[in-house]
Structure formats: structure tokens, C-alpha cells
Amino acid sequence: MRISKGGLLVIMAFLTPLIVELRTVLSWFGIRLSVVETGALGLALIVAVLIWAMWPSNGDTEAKLA
Amino acid sequence: MAMRNAYIDQFPEEARVIRAALWSSFLALMIGGTLGLIQGLHRTNVLRFIPSQDYYTVLTAHGVLLVITFTIFFLVGIFTWAVTTSLDRGVKDIRFTWGWYAMMSLGTLLVGVSILGGVVDQIPMNADVLYTFYSPFQAHPAFYVGFVLFVVGTWLAGFDWFRTWWAWKKDNPDERIPLPTFMALTTMLFWYLSSIGVAISILAFLLPWSLGIIDSVNPLLTRTLFWFFGHPVVYFWLMPAYMLWYTMLPKLSGGKLFSDPLARVVFVLFLILSTPVGIHHQYLDPGIAEGFKFIAMTNTMFLLLPSLLTAFTVVASMEHGARQRGGEGYLSWLKALPWRDPAFTGMALAGLMFAAGGFSGMINAGLSINYLVHNSWWVVGHFHLTVGTAVALTFMAASYWFIPQLTGKEIWNRSLGLVQVVLWFIGMTFMSNAMHRAGLFGIPRRTAEPQYEGFSFDPAVGTVAEIDAQVALGAALLTLSVYLFITNMVLTTIGGSTSDAIPDNTYAGTLSGPEDSPAIIDNLKLWTSIAVVLVIIAYSLPLASIIDAGGLFGPGIDPWKPSVVVDPSLVLESVRGVMP
Amino acid sequence: MNIHTYEKTWLAVAMVLIVGFIATITYGAVGPGIAMIDDDGGTIDPDTINDDERFSDPGVTHVGGNEYEAAVVAQAWAYTPSEITVPANSTVTFYVTSRDVTHSYTVAGTNVNTMVVPGQVSEMTVEFDEPGEYGILCNEYCGAYHHTMEGKLNVVPEDEFDLTELSTEAPDEAQLGNQTTINTTVSNDMNYDLETTATLEIGNQTVEQDQTVEQDQTVEQDVTVPAHGSETLEFAVDTTDFGTGDHDWTVTVDGHEGSGTLTVTNATEGGDGDA
Ligand code: HEM
Ligand SMILES: [Cu+2]
Ligand SMILES: [Cu+2]
């Protein structure tokens, strides 16, 4: 784990406004994501974050952080 | 056995009053949150199980319970903690303290029962007037009396803190006011100043009018007096949250407050600038000259300053805390913060949402763009980010630290607490994003069925159905979050076992202490006088011209009791009847 | 006072931001001349609305050039008139007041939006460039059926717009052989005289016994309706020409129509003769 479970939960939570607002902003530029597309994008981001978090980190500096 | 030094060990008597205040606050949150879900589902037509006429009873209760009862009961609890802890002395007479608590509770009860009369036939009262109670709507006198009792209760609470401070000053003539006390006192000063507005509105006009002593009021005058109080009350909700961000968040992050002097400057700015801005809620009101609206707008923009300074200090203090905990790098220090602690995470998320809310608030404050968003759902989206999250989530998060202090018990389930604050953040993201967007294409606030016969809304992006679904989803997550919070608090209080591991009752130290600021910053008389002068400048002319044009008691305005529920088709008949 | 350099920088940035905001907004408000709601509308006693010059007959009137005025009375839970029609490329000043509680007058999704406070008159000037249809709604809580309070705003192409109104008054019945009149009142709310022609058409369809009269009759009259005034025309009709039965008639003025039916009866069948 690169970060604590708590940190991971918070990052996942951050994805919500990121996706919701990204969708709003994109639509101003004429790019309209459907609800399903948005959901898929969200899922992809969650998976990406999970992989990043689970990837064994090279040092042990971070492991001891809360 | 290790000596525990939690608040309950230091001030057992005060801890009982604070617990009572916090529980009053939580109860209001639970009921209010439930009503919020009913509203969210009703408006969006996802689920309608009350008649639309009763929607306004529900909305009145939601507004009053959340922005008056929930927030202010929490405030009096937390300020009592702040004053006693930072002065290291108890209140002068605990019976007096219970006295103001009882008065606030009685007031709440009266207001609550009169609102409940809107849906319960057995209660011969009605107060479907929303929390702004604009005349010529006329509520039952009990509503006004209850409101006054509640506000006077807060005045007495302030007096309680002031005299505790006076007693302390006698013993410590040369010391600077400790920061938490300084914050509580400056907040109370602008509260005294601004609640005069609503006191005059009720005592001189609305109450005698509802009792039949006078038979007309000037709607624009009572409305202006309401907003004289109505904007500062926003900062009254916010100041305890700011206090927690300044005094608790740095500590929870593992560090110290960046700057004590700057924190004082911020609170002084709020004392000076909170009141002469209320007219920014009346940009669209007739009967108020444009110049007065400009003055309010300018003052409002300067009021951004203390909030921008707060953003800086809070982030800087968090970074300091993270580095104390071994955090490094430009951004990777973020990882070192105690994200598993619901008190920390809740407050940090609340602060982040406040930044978004502040952004939409700047839009509201713009004189001309306000015409687009005024009274639309945009505004509801805005204040659910500010009072509904920056304040409410900070209070919930802080409770994870305070309830152990006040009960001597560990939180029943801290992980659940973390899930709860995160859930609030997610739910509010959905709800407020949809509300903001809905407002831009014209969906109004305070409307049971925003679906019209002669036209439909035309969203630039997406569909109304999608917006509705997003609101309903957000509302459901938020309500779930409220229940998780309440469950945790109840089980902590009644189920949890007393623990010796409760941390000591302290607040954050400072990197740069009060000695770095000139003593004049602590001169409360000076700042209060400046605040009074600014209020006189901003309000005397508008009030005079409103009274001059419409009369002190208005041009023969008949009271309107919302209880008279009529069939709208009959009303249309009567419209045709009165038209020549 | 000891202020950290970062803090000073931030303070400066914040001040620049704030002053920038104020400047932008001031420019936005003063520059392009978006009119604010202020105290220009004056005050009014709600009980005198029916006697008020402007509000006793609410609706749109022409001021001159492309300028119009619209007077609207709000009351729980309707606007009078509920529908407003104005031409494109016009400047319309709205005057809105309330008979009872506080309402709003809001054109959904636009910045045409004002509070309507009893005792006050909201004055709001709006420029309409393009034709379009808009919803009007009340966004201030005004009682149990607040959510039903709505109206409509139509901005029509200039050449489809006028402020001519027509009302007709005629007896329903007349005895065969009598004279009767169809009165037509034409009102004109433009700021100039309306010169036009009024046309009456009576078409005959009904048959009684063996007698059938197939006769269409058209009568024309030239008329000048003064600015903000009205003119009443009398069309004299001689029933001898028609015979008994139902006769539909239509009065047309400037594209507006009024119609009715005149029943001609035999003298013995009753009916109240000439009107
Ligand atoms: C469970 C969480 C909540 C939900 C689902 C919720 C939902 C809603 C909804 C849908 C409205 C819009 C009503 C309308 O415009 O017709 C509303 C209004 C409002 N909410 Fe909430 N809300 C919640 C929590 C809060 C909190 C925590 C606060 C403040 C501390 C708050 C303060 C208000 C206020 C002041 C209004 C406006 C009342 C009025 O217009 O008179 N809400 N809420
Ligand atoms: Cu405000
Ligand atoms: Cu209304």
C-alpha cells in the first residue's frame, strides 16, 4: 500500500466532484457525456487509483505514515 | 491509573450544559435532515407522499431547525467550551448557564409547535412562513415569541462568556485575550449588533401585529430589518466553524496554527464588516435605491478578505502539521495527514467544499449577475455548500473529538465516522452540483412542484430528469450520513465505556503568538465602535427612505395567514372578481 | 506586527482580487447599462390598485418609438394579465405590484427578475431583441399554492405585433323586419392613431319552412382610432334582408375578429325586437 486506507477512501471521495464537475465543464465545450459514460469513466478512475495505491512502493518511507 | 485530563474532568458542570446543547443540536439535525430528504424527493417528483400545500410547513421546519436550532445550539456549546478552556476557569454561576440554555430550549419548543400546527389539525396554530417570515405573512404569535426567547437566550449566553472573561481579566490584567475567547467575544459583539434588527422587526412590528395591537406593517421595512440580521447570522453560523479550523484543525493535523495575529485580524474584520452588507440579499427589491445596493456590494466584496486569509492560514497550518508528521515534497506532504481521523478528514473536506461555496457566493454577490440566480435553486446549492457543509460537516466532524471530551467515552466506531463524513461530501457533491445547474436555467427555490403548465425548462446541458435524479441521490446519501452520525453519537453516549485514553483537553498552539501583534487588536471597544459607525453609514439612509416612502406601518397592508388554505381555482375566480 | 512574507503576498493577491471584482461588477452594472431595480417605481396602497391609473387596466401599452410599458398585478396565485406579448427589438418597462404578499416576477432562465413587494411598485426595463417564448414564474414563496403561480411572455416579430383590441356587442335575437345594430369597439394602445377599415360579414345558413334566403352581406366602414383611445362603430343591420333563422356574423378590424350569431324570429314567436 502506498497510502493509508483512510487516505485511499478520501482520494476515492475526491473522484466524485472531479467527475461530476468535469462532466459539467466538458459540456460547456460541447462534449456531452451520458450518465453511463460518466459512470464508466468514474469506474476506470477508481480502478486506476486502486492500482496505484496497491502497487508495492519502492521505499518503506511511506509505509509508516498514518 | 493515569490521570486523564479531558474537558469533563476539568469542568464537569459545564460539560453537562455543553452536552445538553450539543444534543439539542443533534436532534434538530436529525429531524431537519429527514425533512430535507422529503423535500428533495417531493420537488423532483421522485416520491410525493405529502400534499404540496404541506411542503411549505416542511420547508419552514427544515430551515428553522437547521440554520437556527442546529447551528446555534452547537455554537453556544462550543463557545462555552472555548471560553472556559482558554481562560482556564469555569462560568461564574452554572445556574445562569442552565438558565439561558432553558430559555433557548423553550423558544425552540414554541417555534417548533407553532410550525407543527401547519400539519397537525389538533394544534390551532400556523407558522408556514419559512424561516424568513416575510410580512404580510402572519404567523401565530407563539412563533414570534419563541424566536425572541431563543435570541435573548443567546444574548444571555454571550453575557455569560463576557463576565467570565471580565473576571479573568481582573486576575490577569496584563495578558492578551486567549485566542478562542477572543474569537467567541468578537463573534458575540457582531451578533448583538445585528440581532437588534430582527428584535426590532419582531418586537415593534410583527408581534404586536399578530396580537392585533397594530393592524398594518410595512413589508419592505420588516424585510430589510430581517436582512440586517440575516446576513450576519450567516457569519454567526460560520464563526464557530472558523474557530474550529483555527484552533483544532492544526492540532489534529499534528502541528500548530500558523499565525495567531492573523487569526485575530480575521475575526476583527468579521466584527466590522458582517452587518453593513445585508442589503446584498435585496438587490432585486423595489424601494431601495441603487446606490445603497452598491455600498452593500462593495462591503460584501471586502468581506471576502477574511475568508481568503483563513484559507491561507488553514492550509499553511495543515502543511506544517503534515511536515511535523514527516511529510515531504511539494504535495506529497498531503499523504502524511491523519486521514483516518474523522474529525480531521471531516473538517478538511468541509473546508474544501467551502472554497467551492465561496466561489458561487462571489457570483451571488455580483450585483448584475445576481439577477440571473436570485431565488433560483443555484442559491440553495450555494448555501448547502456553506452552512450546509462548511458549517454542518465541521460540526459533525468536531463532535468526534468533542463528545469523548464531554463524556469521557471513546467514539463507538471511528471508521464508521470516517465513512460518514466522506458520505456527506459525496452526497453534497451530487446535490449541490445539480442545484447550481438547475438554478442557471431557472428552476426556482422554495417551490413544491417546479413543473409548470404553460412552459418547461430548457437546460443548456443535460435534462431536467437527470438533474432531479442527481438531487434525489444526493439527498438520500446525505440523510444516510446524518443517521450514521446520530447512531454513532447515541451509541457512544449510552453504550460506550469510559476510557482513560481520551486525549487532554487542549487546542492548537501557535507558530507566531499574540505577542507578535499590537495590543490594539484586543481593543474590543474600538472595533465595536467602528462596526457601529459602518452600520449607521450603510443603513440609516435606506431605512429612512423606506419609512419615508411607505410609512412606519406601511400603506394599509392586510395580514395574510397562511392557514387559510383555498382551492386555487376558487382563487382564480376571485382574481377575476377583483379585477375591474 | 510580525507578518510572514507568504502571508503578505497572499494578502496583496487577495486585495487585488477584491478590488478587481468590484471594478468588474461596477463596470458591468454601469457600463452596458443594465437597469437595476431601485426605488423609481414608487409606493402604492394595495387597496387602491383598482383605482390606479396604471394598474386598473394592466397590460401592455405603447410609449413611443419602440418603447412599451407593461403593468402587471401579482396576487396569490396569479398574474394579471397572465400573458404578456411584446414585439422584438423593443424596450419594455415593466411595472409590477402586489395585492397581497410578496411575490416575484421572473422570466425563467433569464436575468429578468424582480421581487414584488406589497406597497411597492417594481420598475424594470428590459430590451427584447429576438422573438421567443418564455415562461414566467413566481420564485418567492407566497402561500399554499405558490407553485401554481405562472405566466407567459411572448416576444413576437415586429410585423405581427399590434395593440389593437376588439370587442363587439350585439343582440342575440331580432324580429324579422326590424333594424338592429352590431356595436364594435376598437381600442388602440399604440402611441399613434390607428387608421383602418372595419368589416362586418353576415352569412346566412338557416332555412325556415320553404323560404330560403341565400345572401351574404359585407359592410365596410373606415375608422380612425386615436392613440391610447377607442372608437365605437355601429353596424346597422336590417333583418328584412335575411329572413328568419340563425345568422353568423364576424367583424374584422386590423386582423382581429369578433363574432356572434343573430337569430331572426317571426313577429309571432316573440323576441324583443330591435335592440
Ligand atoms: C440531509 C441533508 C439535507 C438535505 C437532503 C437537504 C435538502 C434541501 C432541499 C431539497 C432544499 C430545497 C427546498 C426548496 O428550495 O424548495 C433545502 C433547503 C434548505 N436547506 Fe437543506 N438539506 C439538507 C441539509 C441542510 C443543512 C445541514 C442545512 C443547514 C445547516 C440546510 C439548510 C437549508 C436551508 C436554509 C434551506 C432553505 C429553506 C428556505 O428556502 O426557506 N439544509 N434543503
Ligand atoms: Cu448574505
Ligand atoms: Cu407568488
TrEMBL record, chain A:
Transmembrane portions of the chain: 6-26, 33-55
Highest taxon above the source species: Archaea
Record's keyword terms, sorted: Membrane, Transmembrane, Transmembrane helix
Designated name of the protein: CbaC protein
UniProtKB/TrEMBL annotation, chain B:
Membrane topology of this protein: Multi-pass membrane protein
Record GO terms (molecular function): cytochrome-c oxidase activity; heme binding
Domain Cytochrome oxidase subunit I profile span(s) in chain numbering: 22-494
Keywords attached to this entry: Electron transport, Heme, Iron, Membrane, Metal-binding, Respiratory chain, Transmembrane, Transmembrane helix, Transport
Family in the record: Belongs to the heme-copper respiratory oxidase family.
TM ranges: 20-41, 61-84, 96-120, 140-162, 182-206, 226-249, 261-281, 301-322, 343-363, 383-403, 415-435, 471-491, 526-547
One annotated Gene Ontology cellular component of this protein: membrane
Record localization: Membrane
Coiled coil: none
Name of this chain's protein: Cytochrome c oxidase subunit 1
Pfam families registered for this protein in UniProt: COX1 (PF00115)
Alphabetical GO biological process terms: aerobic respiration
Residues spanning the signal sequence: none
UniProtKB/TrEMBL annotation, chain C:
Subcellular location: Cell envelope
Any Pfam family: COX2
Domain of life: Archaea
Record GO cellular component, one term: membrane
PROSITE patterns xrefs: COX2, COX2_CUA
InterPro entries, alphabetized: Ba3_CcO_II_C, CcO_II-like_C, Copper_CuA, Cupredoxin, Ig-like_fold, NosZ/Cyto_c_oxidase_sub2
Transmembrane segment boundaries: 9-30
Alphabetical list of Gene3D superfamilies matching this protein: Cupredoxins - blue copper proteins, Immunoglobulins
Record domain Cytochrome oxidase subunit II copper A binding: where: 63-167
GO terms of molecular function: copper ion binding; cytochrome-c oxidase activity
Keyword annotations: Copper, Membrane, Metal-binding, Transmembrane, Transmembrane helix
The protein's name in its UniProt record: Cytochrome c oxidase subunit 2
Organism lineage string: Archaea, Methanobacteriati, Methanobacteriota, Stenosarchaea group, Halobacteria
